[in-house]
């Protein structure tokens, strides 16, 4: 089965903790703090591998984690940074947040390498906390946690033209005849179980990339059949060749088929109907009687909207040249830039939001300060000791919390509450 979707969990590395140590040398009886800083955690980096065309590498392994940074060491030695984790994907892969469905990155066009998750910052060692009144700080800052999220990888093929239609109308036959692709061809439904790409070479160095999209059926946009799995590949195409069985060899009505599939495109993504369509009326060599009668019905329904209709035979090659050159002319009058999806979600920003804080007023007029970052600081700081309280006060000042409290109108003697701890404020 063609692997064009995968759901995986990725995690950047945690920053190494800052180290707590003091100089202990023979002739330095009162050595100061010399704890080194922790190393940065490794990033999660996605890159485009031109040799890949599916996401099969992600079908059997679901968790990927970058290396953590090392803890700082004594003698002011910095911990080693964690190694980045490089994940390779085929061009055209869209990386989405699995929870919200928002686009994190589109590995298309010029975007060949992108850092998706940045590793946590290393914590600083106790050497940084020495002051005139606290010359032997027994505190160090822990490393910043890495980010862990679940992402959805979706491969959306990069093709200029999409070949769409119901199963068994001759799409694979056409692709094999006009390109170098060699799709499997047989006379039964859903023989094409994966999209196929081929390059159409025209005279004068012209040409375009044609994608045979597996047969779409009614209800595909709602998950019926396999068509739902491949509708996403139409999104990047600029022109669609809508192929129908003009001979009705299986009793299908070509006009009804076009309306049905256009409805599926609309239900999946209404923007798809804004793309130019060309109708390829295939199997004209199998029409018994007057060939023009079937074409007149198509012309009456769709020609009035300016849609061009080409009678063709994918088997004999009749009409293919005219069809391909017309499509090429359409492409020449369109923007050359590939369809690339804009970023809608940045996991790094969400982490920074989680590390922020809020200041509210309680029912008793106390100033309530909360936030994950403050909760974490209280977790590893002994504020019952004088040194620990001074360390925590320095943290509040450096984070701008004391300044914001003053801007909010706090006065001497007012109460500040933080996760079960209460303090009287004095400037």
Walkthrough of the structure:
- Mean pLDDT is 81; it is low at 183-192.
- The strands form 4 sheets. The protein has a 6-stranded mixed beta sheet, sandwiched between helices. It has a 5-stranded mixed beta sheet with strand order 3-1-8-5-6, with no helix packed on it. A 4-stranded mixed beta sheet has the order 15-16-17-18.
- The chain is of the alpha/beta class and 427 residues long.
- 21% of the residues lie in helices and 22% in strands.
- The protein has helices at 171-178, 227-230, 254-268, 291-302, 320-332, 347-354, 372-379, 386-398, 401-407, and strands spanning 5-11, 44-48, 63-65, 85-89, 93-97, 103-107, 113-117, 148-155, 161-164, 196-201, 207-212, 239-245, 277-282, 308-311, 358-361, 367-370, 415-418, 421-424.
- The longest helix is centred in the middle third of the chain and has 15 residues, at 254-268.
